[in-house]
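Listing S7. Sequence submitted for prediction.
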Amino acid sequence: MKGHEHLIALRHAGKVPKIVFINDFPCQTDWFEHDDHVTICTAGNAISGLDMRFLLDLRVSIMSESESRAKSLFAKAKWFGAKTVAACHVQNTYPHLQTGWTEIYQEGANA
């Protein structure tokens, strides 16, 4: 996992980002250098071993090129207490032709 270390430091400083993007494909994770939205890369990591405690009470957006990995990351973010989680399986097609899986979770709304 890349990009999470600075989010952990941000949380320890008592700050809360507006949103955390978790990309399960290679991406830039230098968000902290540009005072930008948080971007974390999980490409190549075993999802079962990821510690995502830093997602507690945060809004999270997840994208993966694998439907099973998108679903696993979605479940993991919810398990670690994310307030809102939107996850999708993205495909290498035109955006308007996407047919992959997507789900949204809002704390308290999905009971």
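Caption to Listing S7: primary sequence and predicted structure tokens for the chain studied. The beta strands are 20-24, 38-41, 59-64, 84-89, 102-106. The first strand starts at residue 20 and ends at 24.
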